Structure formats: C-alpha cells, structure tokens
Amino acid sequence: MALGASVPTVSAPVVPVRELVPWAVFAGVILLALLYLVGMDQGATSVFSGSMLHEFVHDGRHLLGFPCH
Amino acid sequence: MVRTLLVRGMLAGVVAALLAFVFAWFFGEPALDGGIAYEDALSTAAGETDGEAPLVSRGTQSTIGLLVALLIYGVAVGGIFALVHGGAQGRLFRLAPRATAGVLALIGYVVVVLVPFLKYPSNPPASSVDDTIGLRSGTFVIMLLLSVVAAIVAVAVGQRLVARIGTWNGVLAGAAVYVVIAGIVAALLPVVSETPADFPAVVLYNFRVATLGIHAVLWAAVGLLFGLLVSRGTRSAERPTVGAGAG
Ligand SMILES: [Zn+2]
Fold it and tell me: Residue B96: which of A13, A49, A20 has the closest Cα?
C-alpha cells in the first residue's frame, strides 16, 4: 500500500480540544462504566449486589476474554 | 460536532456487535458449551445432583444474554473509538478520516485485545479456579491499562521520530517502543496457569480462537463502519461545520 502516494491533503475539520475534552470526560466515564459492568461487575468487585447481571451477560463475559469462572 | 461523532461511533458499535454475535454464535458457543459439559461431568462425578435451578437459564445466556453483552461492549467501544478518533483526526496521522478510523481500529485491536490476550488469554467455563477471580481480574485490568499507556507513549515517541527520521522509520520505532514496554509489563506480571490437566484441549483452543475472532469482527466493523459514516459526514456537513466554526 503506497501510503506516501495516496495520502490526500486532508481538509476534514479538526475537532477543537476545548470541545472534545468535556465530552471525552463525561461520555468516557459512562462508556468505561458500561465496559466494567459487562466485563467485571459481580465478579471480584460488585457495584450491584447479587449475581443476576453476571449470570445474564455470562457468555459474553467469557467469550470477550474477561476473567470469570 | 463531538456529539455527532459519538452517535456515529455508538451506531457503528451496535452494528459491529450484531456481526460479532453471529460469529460468536457459530464459533464461540460450541466451545463454551464444551466447557459447560466438562463442568457438568465434574459435578456428576463428584456426586452432586443438580438440585437448584440456575438464576439465568443456559438458553437465555447463550442468546439474549450474549447479544446484550456484545451490544453493551460494542456501544462502549464504538463511543470511545469515536472520541479517540476525534482527538486523533488531523493531529496524529496525516490521513483522511476514513483511513484514520482503519488505523485506529487496528491499533485498538492489538493494544486492547490481542496483547492483553497473549498474557491472559480467555478461558472457557470451568477452566479457572473460582477463588483466584480477584487476582485474575486485577492482573487483567493492569495488563490492559498498561498496554494502553504503552501505546500512548509509543505514539508520542513515534510522532516525534516521524518528523526526524521519516514516516517508515518513525512508525517502526514507535511500534518497537510499544512492543518493548508491553513486553516488560507482561514479563513482570504474575503467571496464571490454572487449566485442569484433563480439560479438553480442543475446547480450550477453539474457545480462545473464538475470542480473537469475535473481537476481530467487532473491531474491524467498528473501524470500517465509523470510517464510512465519518467520511460521508465530513463531505455533507462541511459547509455547516465551517459556518459553525466561524459563527
Ligand atoms: Zn463464568
């Protein structure tokens, strides 16, 4: 792949840092929390009590490579 | 602008998760069932009668449960991917938005999935010791986080080197920085070796290959779909965006 030959002059808008950071913090925390819930909660650590969530997403947790049983 | 990016990323994540589900259904579930079968054989041999009904049935776990798990993962990865793309586009790689998405998906797969997997591979049911879940969770997260840190350092170093020694050498040097840091981290973290001696090797192998495959489908789809959406978006939204920037 001839990178050098095919690199276009990019005119796509660059997202200003000032715009990006609040979103990255706000949405980033929520999205990481989702990853934690699907991958880890009700395992070594629990935010929600019981094991309903763990049991429900159990196959995905194993297959995605998160530690389980 | 960032909001639109996020929506597109999560949308790409949803479609990617659906594709990953199809792959997981055909290649992951048979291997996972192999682990369950081993588990059942163990408990039967131990004389345990299966008295209590499980909280969630196997039928639910392997269908809706798996789908929901993949959807949550896909949406989260898609959203974070969009944010990283927003930060990288026009700054890190001098590429069109679509090519940036492809490069980021490849880097994401290697850094977030493949390298942590090489140290702590996925395990089918009944192939780990229950009591070590704390150690296994902790070390897995540390490996994952430090792999991401190593990648950030590598990109920062690589970018400076590209300016000095050219694109090819700079990118290679950056990749080398990542490999060295991730290698040291992996060498220092404790070894987890718990697979029972009589656990079926084929099940373990197929299960681990399935994990890599599911992620390959998911990350490739996120990168390609987000790239498609964002390259269409920049063309059609160019005028409004410029107008918003000026106003
Ligand atoms: Zn499990």
Answer: A13
Hey, is the C-beta of A57 within 8 angstroms of any chain B C-beta? Answer: yes
Asked if the Cβ–Cβ distance from B234 to A13 is below 8 Å, we say yes
Kindly report, residue by residue over B5-21, the tens digit of the pLDDT: 999 999 999 999 999 99
Look at B86 and A68 and tell me if their CB atoms are within 8 Å: no
**Euclidean distance between CA atoms B223 and B221, whole angstroms:** 5
Give me the residues of B, 163-222, that contact A with CB < 8 A.
167, 207, 210-211, 214-215
pLDDT tens for the 69 residues of chain A, in order? 444 444 444 456 799 999 999 999 999 999 999 999 999 999 999 999 889 999 999 999 999 999 999
Listed in sequence order, the residues at least 6 apart from B202 whose beta carbon sits closer than 8 Å to its beta carbon are: B34
Whether A56 and B60 have beta carbons less than 8 Å apart is answered as: yes
Which residues place a Cβ less than 5 A from the ion ligand 1? A 68-69; B 125
Task: Say what the pLDDT of residue B53 is.
Answer: 73
User: How distant is the alpha carbon of residue B57 from its chain centre?
Assistant: 27
Q: Closest by alpha carbon to B31, among B219, B194, B214, B192? A: B214
**What are the tens digits of pLDDT across the range B201-230?**
999 999 999 999 999 999 999 999 999 999
What is the domain partition of chain A in residue ranges?
17-64
Collapse the DSSP code of B166 into the 3-class scheme (helix H, G, I; strand E, B; otherwise coil) and give the result: coil
B148: its two tokens: 């991401």
Q: Characterize B38-58 residue by residue with b for buried, 16 or more Cβ atoms within 10 angstroms of its Cβ, and e for exposed.
A: beeeeeeeeeeeeeeeeebee
- Among candidate residues B76, B113, B105, the one with its CA nearest the CA of residue B210: B113
Task: Enter the ipTM.
Answer: 0.91
State the amino acid at position A5 in one-letter form. Answer: A
